[in-house]
Amino acid sequence: MTMPAIQPLESYRLAQYAVPLRCYICETDNTFDAEFCTHCSAPMALAHQANVRKVHPQMIAVLGASGAGKTVFLGMLLDMLARKPERMQLLARGAFSITLQQATLSALSRCEFPAKTPNEPDRWNWVHCEARRTGQHKPVELIVPDMAGEAVLEEVNHPHTFRVVRAFLAKCTGAMVLTDAVKLTDGTREQDHFTMKLLTYLSELGGGGKSGWARRPVAMVLTKADQCEERLADPDAFAQTHAAGLWQHCRERFGRHKFFAAGVSGTCAYRESIAEGRVQVPLRVEPHGIVEPFEWLMENLPVKKR
Amino acid sequence: MRKLGTHWIPAVILPFSLAVICLGWWMTNWFAVAGGVTGICYVVPWVVPFGRVRRKKEERVAAKPAVGRSVKRAPADPNDTDALVEQMLAQGRFALLLRAQIAETLSKVHFRRTLEALDDAMTLVPDGEVVLGRIDEALNDGKLMPEEIIAGGGRVIRVERFFLDRFPVTNREFHEFTSSGGYEQMALWDRSVLPAVLDFVDHTGVPGPRFWRDGCFPPGEENHPVVGISWYEASAYARWLGKRLPSDAEWVKAGSWPMSLAASTPSVAKRMQRKYPWGDTMDRGRANLWGSGPDRTIPVEASPDGVSVGGVHQLIGNTWEWIGGDFRGGDHPEGELELPTPMKSIRGGAFDTYFDNQATCQFQSGENPLSRKHNIGFRCAVCVCDLTLARDNTATAEPRARQENLEQPKPEAEEVPV
């Protein structure tokens, strides 16, 4: 026996479903209540915010090999500019933009590095923020994701594996490419080669001409400078000596690039962990050279025509 | 024959042209005026570059990293005891003068002046117990119960009374050491580090702290704490003064100024121990840390509000301070650490320390003893038992009164089980 029931017809939902929402990264249509893009897995919150606020944020990529320090660099940068807005101020847009900062700083305050960024794009932390330089009236809206190094490498080696990486990098107006300076001094060329691969990928991605990567600013950041402090007084000379291929590549392919040195921990030790094996531990936190690459990048970003 | 060069050309043409202009103006001969103007136009490109060159030269001189000036003392005559004592007092080596063997030979005036120098430069930290280890959570309660100390992996250390420098060692004080040949006096250095001493040079290759030039500190930084020195350089300097680096327990005791409160039963006995020299809550206005200062070192007498109960300045912030003991990393919340190199303990936080919880009296970090970092300095300590503070018939009333409270020499620190 069947019982009659009254089911309210939420016609407004049908109307919403009828109007697709375009992903801000890959521009694929999604339903209005999708949390992540069904095509590239980027958070749809970015598209919602762009629609509501009627702004089109610029995109900046933070790239580097796995373990180069992208999460720490980005989390630290956001927190430093939020805490001390003398030269430049960053204000988060949306609660999701603070998650990265929160996770990074929480770990560092306990003298630990944050957990490794997972490879799945839907688990990455995306930051949508508003950057304002001193004396600048109109802030710049930015989107900066914390992408996993292994995912980027996979996309570089096997294009279209991670659609979000390709779609995002094609739209970026600038990039900060991180390289582990300690590994460079060790003589292992792994970092050098990875960064060269990445730069080659970038230079071929945006096409040529005025809008290509050859004209976009790229800040080359040598991370973990605190562990080879004396050798990093002149980052450009350091790169020329220890990563000659990378240095040449930048000179030839990227018209607007500059080398920087950055460090967050004063000194590191190691800890044995059952789950993760041998884990590096910062003995204290004293950031250096974190803000400078970002400031340079902001100065060199192309001005958007209104 | 001396070459004339081309300097005479503008010197001749310029006055001649001016004279022609004036004459032409007076005679209303515009051709003459035009000729004079042409002459000046011809001379201008000669004169302007000279001005530019001069300006550039001046800029270059101004940009040249000048070095701070400090008095370089002439060596005193070894046979002139008074001159030697005067020199040692000027160098701040009063602790050596108060060693038993030397103090007996000092004149009454010199002995009094030496005691005054000690009082000015150092503060007395009383003996007592101090708790070290992971006790931050217990400190948040404002008290340390025995069970909390055990739960936190803490330990109670007994410290004998000692003198601690009121201020960190400054560039000017360290310059006394370098200019008197401290880097060449092998007896001051640990035998194990002798091969590395040659590598302890400044930017210009002269023995001295890493960030100095030509054996001297940067101008205007004479009262800034000396940085860019390794643990071994700090130890050698302390030895030269007749002092030593403080132990972990001594440093924490001077900053946190612990007290044991009397209780009816031992099980409820309370220990009060400050998190910061000024109290239990962070006040960034009292210390030079990241975000509260100019992002570099400041003079040692700056931020007087951060002084400890005993009168020790800048224990927190400005520069980390080398401690005499080893760093074993045992207080990390996740357990034992594996150190890449043997490390020495550093405490207090620096101008670039980011987190408040890493700039407490309790927080301990470590550094390679050979590192010469931009944010690590030091201060010295000396045991009361190592000094002669009173002499029969010669001492002043004050040191005699102090001496009455002193006991026989005891070991530096004694660990007491909780």
Largest sheet of chain B: 4 strands, mixed
Strand ordering within the main sheet of chain A: 4-5-6-3-7-8-9
**Which CATH class of chain A?**
Alpha Beta
CATH homologous superfamily classification of the largest domain in chain B: paralog of FGE (formylglycine-generating enzyme)
Low-confidence segments of chain A: none
Going by helix content, strand content and strand pairing, the class of chain B is alpha+beta
Give a concise summary.
Chain A has 306 residues and is α/β, with parallel strands linked by helices.
Question: What does this protein look like?
Answer:
The complex is a heterodimer of chains A (306) and B (418). Chain A is α/β, with parallel strands linked by helices. Chain A has one domain (57-300): Rossmann fold (3-Layer(aba) Sandwich), CATH 3.40.50.300. Helices cover 36% and strands 23% of the residues of chain A. Chain A has a seven-stranded mixed β-sheet, with helices on both faces. In chain A, helix 8 packs parallel to helix 10 (244-253). The longest helix of chain A has 16 residues, at 190-205. The radius of gyration of chain A is 21 Å and the shape is globular. The model of chain A has no long low-confidence stretch (mean pLDDT 87). In chain B, strand 5 (259-261) and strand 6 form a beta hairpin. Chain B is of the alpha+beta class and 418 residues long. Chain B has two domains: 9-57; 81-416, paralog of FGE (formylglycine-generating enzyme), CATH 3.90.1580. Chain B contains 13 helices and twelve strands. In chain B, helix 3 packs parallel to helix 6 (108-121). Chain B starts with 7 loop residues before the first helix and ends with a strand. Classes of the chains: A alpha/beta (306), B alpha+beta (418). The A-B interface holds A 83-84, 108-112, 229, 266-273, 278, 281, 283-288 and B 290-291, 329, 332-340, 343, 349-350, 352-355, 357-358, 365-368, 371, 373-375.
